From TrEMBL:
PROSITE patterns: ZF_SWIM (PS50966). One of its GO terms (molecular function) is zinc ion binding. Coiled coil: none annotated. This is SWIM-type domain-containing protein. Keywords: Metal-binding, Zinc, Zinc-finger. InterPro entries: Znf_SWIM. It comes from Brassica campestris. It comes from the Eukaryota. Pfam families: SWIM.
Length: 703
């Protein structure tokens, strides 16, 4: 094959097949006689289809993950070569590159070996495969991608096939007929067992997964049955108590699961206990759905019943459902402790995606420290009303007898919150509340003892921060309800004061539940699981209610009705429509939850006469008004506000232009050129810590 030194001479290939692989392309040797690689040029938009085709290799079925990635901004280079990258991704076969377990010893080449020390990990998939390739999005031509295949064969360093049907040693006896079980099938089987699915159904799905890589075979069925039965017995016999002492037990667990821990601090006289958990899968979801998006916190779960409160960081997936990506178990709210685990979490994400950042952080507790969030993530902070709404509604229903009193009291509580925008004195609104409902002694005792001392702090936070939407509130509440069901069942009430039990429940049942939900949705399998997952939020259930089922009376804006889809003779009554503090008489709402009827009615009330704006919209208008009214004179403050406004306007205009175009190259060519100094260009894409480390090493060698 002739070696080509100019990238312009390599033709762009666009195969007609939906998914294509290495064999569908014509590869060219690019470089010099001393150093050259096999390369091919394809449209950047078809990179995902190439990766799917490579994963479907019948000889070595696998998946590729991003081992390393870099990005450059357009215009950051003054001079550049034709093969310089705008985006760089190194894809590596998921069966490599290591072949070592937690203990440091080489794993035996057996398919059904179980890692009894850490069953949540997947050391069996580390087979030492060296197959990897690079995808470069060209700096000079962003619409094209340069594929560079460094190692085509799925072999280890010794040159032997290390996974797939051609690997004779990967699965023990019968290796010629049975392929190596991939991590996806392992995790699927474990998740189904943890969720209590019958063994017959688990075995059926397990065999279906294996048969995707090989045909039906009696030996496959026999070994798969043994594997599922053995794995099920080990999981059922496993216990959270690794030691009678809870502190010693959690220390043993932390030593065995170092890959799933990003922060661990034992309790002492000076430091409080802190444990941060994030599995490899959660880290992937954090980078995937958290980058340039929102992150939310369910911050004080189990503060009364658990030994240590649980804080969960959530991202919103492709269906805008809340997905847990990290758990922090600690009672410490000190700024130093919070900032410590937040920075470690950000560093983990940036080690996978160097340009990782979030666009907003949603909190649900007015007492939560916001300075560490601003210092670490450098993003806007939003406030969610779901916690205060849920707490008030649950106690209103629990402590008041008649539904008439319940809806009037809940409406009056909403007026207390609305008073911060209506210009009404909050103290007068609270005084009216206590006078009008003085006969409701049970609720007023709860309100005056629990909320009255801190109501000023909460209202101040609500007014100072932008408010999150009802969709985000509903998604966070749905996670909270699911977590409560998983943890607070009657069979484990005696274990609530043990941290090892909490960790065990989170990393097994809850983690498996969300993994299976995402897998069912993305692979279009497990239809029952997928349907339950899609309908798990009130926002989605509200979207299925037709507009014709909502009855709004323009003459009576105090009440609205929603006809049931199952029985048209039944209608749910929603009082105070258009407000976050609307009250519905359905069973789900009476448990303190944000129901689908309230969301649907509030959506219908938008932009209608007679109904007020939602709190999130009022908060947004308040922020715009405050920005507009701030510079009162012809001062520097006016110049700064004008500059920030124009910058935000340009960004919005570029986003609108980007979303409405089919060819990104047209937009990239119109971007202004950014000139940079020579020193900055030489280290572009290299983190400052690495650059400084390299400089120190070179100086030491010179000495």
């Amino acid at each position: 094959m002739e070696i080509i030194e100019s990238l312009e001479e390599i033709p762009v290939q666009n195969p007609q097949a939906e998914d294509f692989s290495y064999s569908d392309l014509t590869w060219t040797k690019f470089g010099t006689t001393e150093h050259h690689d096999e390369v091919a040029l394809i449209p950047y938009a078809r990179v995902e289809e190439f990766i799917i085709g490579e994963c479907s290799n019948p000889e070595c079925p696998t998946r590729f993950h991003i081992e390393r990635g870099r990005k450059r901004s357009r215009g950051s280079l003054r001079e550049y070569k034709p093969d310089e990258y705008l985006e760089y991704r190194l894809y590596w076969c998921s069966f490599g590159p290591e072949n070592y377990g937690e203990g440091g010893g080489v794993l035996p080449s057996r398919k059904y070996r179980l890692n009894t020390r850490n069953r949540a990990a997947r050391p069996q998939s580390m087979r030492g495969c060296t197959c990897h390739f690079v995808v470069k999005r060209l700096y000079a031509r962003p619409s094209l991608a340069l594929l560079v295949y460094n190692e085509r064969r799925h072999v280890n360093k010794a040159g032997f096939v290390c996974h797939g049907p051609l690997d004779r040693d990967a699965i023990g006896p019968g290796a010629k007929k049975i392929p190596y079980i991939c991590n996806e099938i392992q995790q699927q089987t474990m998740s189904m067992i943890y969720l209590g699915i019958p063994e017959e159904n688990v075995l059926e799905k397990h065999i279906e997964g294996i048969q995707r890589y090989c045909g039906s075979d009696a030996t496959v069925d026999t070994l798969a049955s043994q594997y599922v039965h053995k794995l099920g017995m080990i999981i059922k016999r496993s216990t959270h108590e690794l030691d009678l002492d809870d502190q010693a037990s959690i220390k043993i667990w932390a030593e065995r699961n170092k890959k799933s821990i990003f922060s661990y601090q034992e309790s002492s006289e000076t430091d409080q206990f802190m444990l941060g958990i994030q599995t490899e899968w959660q880290l992937q979801q954090f980078v995937r759905f958290g980058h340039c998006s929102l992150v939310a916190a369910d911050s004080t779960f189990g503060i009364k019943r658990l030994k240590y409160p649980l804080c969960t960081l959530l991202v919103f997936d492709s269906r805008h459902h809340a997905l847990p990506v990290a758990w922090i178990i600690s009672r410490s709210n000190l700024k130093s402790d919070v900032e410590k685990w937040m920075k470690i979490l950000l560093q983990r994400a940036q080690s996978v995606e160097p340009g990782f950042r979030i666009n907003g952080f949603i909190i649900d507790d007015a007492a939560m420290e916001i300075d560490p969030i601003r210092d670490t993530f450098r993003c806007p902070i939003l406030f969610s009303l779901w916690r205060i709404r849920r707490s008030w509604l649950r106690n209103v229903v629990k402590k008041c007898d008649t539904i008439e009193v319940q809806r009037e009291l809940f409406k009056c509580l909403g007026e207390v919150v609305y008073s911060i925008w209506d210009g009404v004195d909050t103290s007068k609104a609270l005084e009216r509340l206590t006078l009008d409902f003085s006969d409701q002694t049970a609720f007023m005792h709860y309100f005056t003892s629990t909320w009255l001392p801190k109501i000023g702090m909460w209202l101040s936070t609500i007014k100072s921060l932008p408010l999150a939407s009802q969709e985000a509130c509903g998604a966070i509440e749905a996670y909270h309800v699911k977590l409560k069901v998983k943890l607070f069942d009657d069979t484990h009430l005696n274990a609530l004061q043990r941290v090892d039990w909490l960790v065990h429940k989170l990393t097994t049942e809850l983690h498996s539940s969300y993994w299976l939900d995402r897998y069912a949705d993305e692979s279009d399998s497990f239809q029952n699981v997928k349907e339950e997952y899609i309908a798990s939020t009130s926002w989605h259930r509200a979207s299925e209610i037709p507009d014709s089922a909502v009855i709004l009376d323009s003459n009576n804006t105090v009440v609205a009705k929603v006809r049931s889809q199952r029985d048209t003779n039944v209608a749910r009554v929603v009082w105070n429509p258009g407000s976050e503090f609307a009250f519905c008489d359905c069973a789900w709402s009476l448990q303190g939850n944000l129901c689908k009827h309230v969301i649907k009615v509030n959506t219908m009330c938008e932009n209608r006469e007679g109904y007020g704006d939602s709190m999130s919209l009022r908060s947004f208008k308040e922020k715009l008004t405050s920005v507009k009214m701030k510079p009162m004179d012809d001062s520097i403050a006016l110049d700064i506000s004008m500059a920030l406004t124009l910058q935000m306007f340009d960004q919005i205009k570029q986003l609108v232009k980007l979303s409405g175009t089919d060819d990104i190259s047209n937009i990239v060519n119109d971007l202004p050129v950014k000139w940079g100094c020579k020193k900055g260009r030489t280290t572009v894409g290299i983190p400052a810590s690495i650059a400084a480390f390299t400089k120190k090493r070179s100086q030491k060698r010179k000495r």
